[in-house]
Specification:
3-stranded antiparallel sheet, globular, single chain, 8-stranded antiparallel sheet, alpha+beta
């Protein structure tokens, strides 16, 4: 009888603890929001915003591209790279890319097939460009944000990376 009572008490305590954790747990956040953000990082964000969202980068360096200063932060564990236009603390995000399978929107992300993309989104366009397949949402025009899903070359084509990009950025 004692063993039964102890087991019953332990079960009750565990149930209350699990219920408290469920209430305290944050709501599941979409980590990929097409046209908006990846991992809470949006186009136009500044370096401090990115560090608040992703932590300390593994690499943080400057370079030049098309006669403009750029800055890149690499987060290896998260498999995320962020590119800024400009070089200092006022630089702005123009490109965010991920190869992380956990970055999803409505179940779609790295690892999804081209067919799953087509079912999930209306208005996506898929094509082969420079020898590579990709599908994208948005319009390729200056100062517009495009969400690009790079695809594998083997069939069924699967998403190998997702990039949120400011066109002309």
């Amino acid at each position: 009888m004692r063993i039964y009572r102890k087991a019953l008490i332990a079960l009750a305590v565990a149930s209350v603890a699990m219920a408290m954790l469920a209430v305290a747990a944050p709501a599941r956040v979409q980590t990929l929001v097409p046209g908006k953000s990846i991992r809470g990082v949006s186009i136009g964000a500044q370096p401090d915003d990115v560090k608040r969202a992703l932590g300390k980068p593994d690499r943080d360096y400057g370079y030049s591209w098309n006669n403009s200063k750029r800055r890149k932060m690499v987060f290896k564990a998260e498999k995320v790279e962020v590119v800024f236009r400009g070089s200092g603390s006022t630089a702005r995000v123009v490109n965010i890319s991920t190869k992380n399978r956990s970055e999803r929107t409505d179940g779609i992300g790295v690892g999804s097939t081209q067919a799953e993309l087509a079912r999930a989104f209306s208005g996506e366009r898929c094509l082969k460009s420079n020898g590579f397949w990709h599908c994208y949402l948005g319009v390729w025009a200056n100062d517009r944000v495009v969400t690009d899903f790079s695809l594998s070359s083997s069939k069924p084509r699967r998403v190998i990376s997702v990039t949120l990009e400011l066109v002309g950025g």
